[in-house]
């Protein structure tokens, strides 16, 4: 394990909770923690040894520590979206959202720097089904993995966008909640990612702080008065944490929100130097997790009445023929509407039709809602997305696979099934959908997405 730079250690002096010797000892131990967050809509009963001694993460209801790190790649439940492998400290987002928002109402939420999808999938588990989550990623190469992880998690209420933060100025007073897990110098992940030590410098910290302020300023217009901002980094540096909290209060007209934290969890509450805004620090010598900082804020002012844009007829029209074919296999759900989008049928929250059309008008949308599939020659060709979404009940034959066959399916290999079924079939593992196959005379067509297949043997 590379040594921590002396300029880095000196820069932390005076920060509440920082203890040089304890942090060094924890870093040099090389301990690697494994934590996951369960998908509450895809219940399973773990029967793998690694899960038997799981421990609860005190600030996240579905968070679990595992006793060791299993092979997630060869676990079909991982590919089915039954859980997400995530660093434990970052799951503190849950408490911040629960204490600052009314999660029983329909909310419009932006996860601004969303890839690879940890916080977005977490938000999808917390928000009401009729809420809308916009998961944005500015780096093109990271958008596909974000889309994959959200698809596997399964929700009709997510829209994935690929835009610069400044583009959200086109949507004034649009969001009730904005989460900014900002790009940072990464010092909180030194134990997890030793290579990050080599790129750390005081100059990079200053550069990151300036970039974080630009990102926050660009997106602030799209937050409603009275709306909530949750800001976080995986950096220990005051310049990227408490100093930015001061900047938000003094330059962006924000108010601080004090959070309650679990007793004896090791979370350190700090106060920003000038405004004394509360923030919450995670040190790996005090919590079972990596370095992390989070602070919550409320935008000053009274919430305005949002302008209502009527949905155009052409945008939401799905032919009666298509609906008739779809309804042979899909249970009606008044909370879900089907719309046409570039020859595809999409399932989206009925209450968010107007909002999604506004997003389409102003942003580049990579994916919206759940891809239901398409109608070709009077036949429904289901999309993999549809199999992943537990909110949509599908009346189609289902086949349960053992682990060996499930892995063959996930590799898009050939495997044998003893069945008299024909046509489209959902394949499952431990009662959770893996995807589609089509049974034809003498062969099985495997429709698992090619780009997602397991490549190792």
Key structural traits:
457 residues; alpha+beta; Rossmann fold; Nuclear Transport Factor 2, Chain: A; Archaeosine Trna-guanine Transglycosylase, Chain: A, domain 4; 3 domains; ten-stranded mixed β-sheet; four-stranded antiparallel β-sheet; 14 helices; 26% helix; globular
Break the fold down into its secondary structure elements and pairings.
Elements: H1 6-11, H2 20-29, E1 34-38, E2 55-56, E3 63-66, H3 76-79, E4 83-85, H4 93-100, E5 108-111, H5 118-126, E6 132-136, H6 140-153, E7 158-161, E8 175-181, H7 196-199, H8 202-220, E9 223-233, H9 242-251, E10 254-257, E11 268-271, E12 278-282, E13 292-299, H10 313-316, H11 320-326, E14 336-341, E15 344-349, H12 353-362, E16 365-368, E17 370-376, E18 379-382, H13 384-388, E19 398-400, H14 403-410, E20 423-429, E21 432-440, E22 443-446
Parallel strand pairs: 5-6, 5-8, 6-7, 8-9, 19-20
Antiparallel strand pairs: 1-3, 1-4, 2-3, 7-16, 9-13, 10-13, 11-12, 12-13, 14-15, 15-17, 17-18, 20-21, 21-22
Helix pairs in contact: 4-5
């Amino acid at each position: 394990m590379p040594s921590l730079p002396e300029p880095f250690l000196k820069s932390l002096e005076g920060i509440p909770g920082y203890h040089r010797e304890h942090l060094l000892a924890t870093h040099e131990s090389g301990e690697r923690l494994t934590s996951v967050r369960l998908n509450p809509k895809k219940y399973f009963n773990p029967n793998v040894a690694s899960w038997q001694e799981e421990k609860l993460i005190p600030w996240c209801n579905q968070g679990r520590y595992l006793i060791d790190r299993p092979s997630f790649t060869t676990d079909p439940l991982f590919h089915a979206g039954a859980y997400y492998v995530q660093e434990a400290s970052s799951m503190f987002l849950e408490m911040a959202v629960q204490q600052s928002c009314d999660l029983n109402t329909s909310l419009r939420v932006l996860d601004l720097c969303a890839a690879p999808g940890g916080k977005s999938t977490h938000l999808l588990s917390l928000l009401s089904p009729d809420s809308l989550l916009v998961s944005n990623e500015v780096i093109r190469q990271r958008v596909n993995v974000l889309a994959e992880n959200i698809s596997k998690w399964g929700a009709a209420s997510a829209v994935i966008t690929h835009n610069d933060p400044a583009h959200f100025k086109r949507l004034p007073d649009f969001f009730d909640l904005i989460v900014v897990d900002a790009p940072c110098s990464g010092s909180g992940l030194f134990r997890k990612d030793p290579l990050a030590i080599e790129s750390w410098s005081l100059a990079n910290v200053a550069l990151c702080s300036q970039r974080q302020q630009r990102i926050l300023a660009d997106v602030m217009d799209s937050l409603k008065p009275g709306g909530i901002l949750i800001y976080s980094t995986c950096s220990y540096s005051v310049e990227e944490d408490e100093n930015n909290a001061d900047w938000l209060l003094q330059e962006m007209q924000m108010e601080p929100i004090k959070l309650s934290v679990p007793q004896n969890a090791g979370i350190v509450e700090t106060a920003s130097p000038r405004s004394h805004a509360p923030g919450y620090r995670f040190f790996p010598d005090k919590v079972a997790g990596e370095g992390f900082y989070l602070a919550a804020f409320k935008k000053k002012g009274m919430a305005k009445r949002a302008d209502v844009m009527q949905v155009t007829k052409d945008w939401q029209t799905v032919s009666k023929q298509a609906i008739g074919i779809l309804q042979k296999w899909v249970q009606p759900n008044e909370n879900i509407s089907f719309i046409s989008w570039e020859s595809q049928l999409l399932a989206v929250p009925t209450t968010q039709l107007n909002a999604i059309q506004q997003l389409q008008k102003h942003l580049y949308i990579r994916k919206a809602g759940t891809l239901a599939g398409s109608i070709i020659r009077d036949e429904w060709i289901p999309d993999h997305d549809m199999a992943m979404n537990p909110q949509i009940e599908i009346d189609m034959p289902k086949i349960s696979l053992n682990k060996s066959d499930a892995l063959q399916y996930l590799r898009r290999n050939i495997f044998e099934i003893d069945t008299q079924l024909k046509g489209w079939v959902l394949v499952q593992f431990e009662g959770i959908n893996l995807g589609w196959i089509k049974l034809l005379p003498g062969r099985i067509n495997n429709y698992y997405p090619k780009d997602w297949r397991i490549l190792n043997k």
